[in-house]
Amino acid sequence: MIQAKRDKIAPISIFFLLFISRIVVSLTNVQSVTTGLMKTDILISIIASMAIVLVLSIPVIFCIKNHKNPLDVKWVGGFYSLYYIFLAGVNISRFSYFASTTLNPDSQAWVFSIIVAVCAFYGAYLGIEGLARFSAFAFVLLISAIIVALVFNVQDFELINLFPIVTNSRESIIKNTVFMVSNSAEVAMLLCLSKKVNGVAIKQFLLSVLFSFLTMLLLFLFVIGVMGNSASLQAFPLYSLFQTAKVGLFERIDILFISFWIFGVFIKAVMLIYCSTISFKPIKKSKKCIISSALSLLTAIVLTEFVQVGRISPYTYAVLFFVFCFIIPLLTLIFKKRNLGDELVEKF
Question: What is the CA radius of gyration of the chain?
Fold first, then answer.
């Protein structure tokens, strides 16, 4: 029997955290970050990206198994910390853009960025245990919302909307696949979070990848099957899918979407900021939380107010993903010595 330990979480919590983290990506402004029409071939990109993520995560998995974590090298951990901060800023900016354009068009995106960043700072400062407990509640809410949306859209699902299966160009399909692969930050986060698991994290990581991508596949299948050609006209297709679902007298089912997206963005931002703090060791925890949160906020504001995150080439994210999730772990696996300290902790 595994006993509870301070600053450690159960393996199932890793599944909840990484599943929610990956699903949040699909809830962002899809039409800004994907290319071509919202047609059935987006499902091909989802399946291909799932397979690629699983293959590219092999070095990270073997690094964990062989106790050769690149984060044990201080200067490498510093670069990973910056990578986590950048990803936190990207996710905060996407939600802020959605909130300022759809939820409250009269507000400014930077206001929402500040709110999320402050909440993420508080969550990261409290540590991983509280976040793990909250993730179980968020996971239940997320699955419930998805089931409700799908069940009450079944009557409007038309198979004819799925044809022709391939509409976009090969280049668009490849770009969409690259985008989905490169936004799988969970591969890099596993390097950090695996040390915080009171048990084996690899199995839960693999399950989270499989189930999150399959859930995305189901959601986008319904987006296309229900909305047809009009799906390409929606700035936020999944949000529109929730708006079309009606349960009796309750016509605002989209509130479920907004609720679990807020929870999801909070969880992902906290996880990324938390990972950035434990990757960079020379500074005290409180100062690292403040610095990481501030830099994430700055990144989010730059992306929403000056650059616009949707205009960044997907290949930019792909290069970063390939370096931090595959190249560095692979080089670590080849050249780094085993961390005997981790082996002793695992045994005793």
Answer: 20
Cα dihedral 69→71→72→74 (10° resolution): 160
More confident residue, 255 or 9: 9
Q: Model's pTM, two decimal places?
A: 0.91
User: Which amino acid is located at 196 in the chain?
Assistant: K
Tokens matching residue 243: 């708006």
CB atoms within 10 A of CB 150: 17
Tokens representing residue 260 in the block: 């679990």
Are the beta carbons of 246 and 152 closer than 8 angstroms?
yes
What is the spatial distance between Cα 173 and Cα 157, in angstroms, rounded to a whole number?
24
Average pLDDT over residues 14-40: 82
The residues, any chain, with a CB within 8 Å of residue 184's CB and separated by 6 or more, are: 22, 25, 49, 53, 209, 321, 325
Contact 44, 173 (CB under 8 A): yes
pLDDT tens digits, residue range 60-97?
Answer: 999 999 999 999 998 999 999 999 999 999 999 988 98
Which of helix, strand or coil describes residue 125? helix
Helix (H) or strand (E) run with residue 122 in it: helix 109-126
DSSP class of 161: G
Q: Which residue has the tokens 């986590």?
A: 84
Distances (CA, A) of 302 to 35, 109, 120: 23, 11, 18
Q: Is the bond into 164 cis (omega within 30 degrees of 0)?
A: yes
- Which one, of 313, 317, 43, lies nearest residue 161 by Cα? 43
Helix (H/G/I), strand (E/B), else coil: 204: helix
- Side-chain half-sphere of 22: how many Cα atoms within 13 Å? 31
The gap from C-alpha 304 to its chain's centroid, in whole angstroms, comes to 18
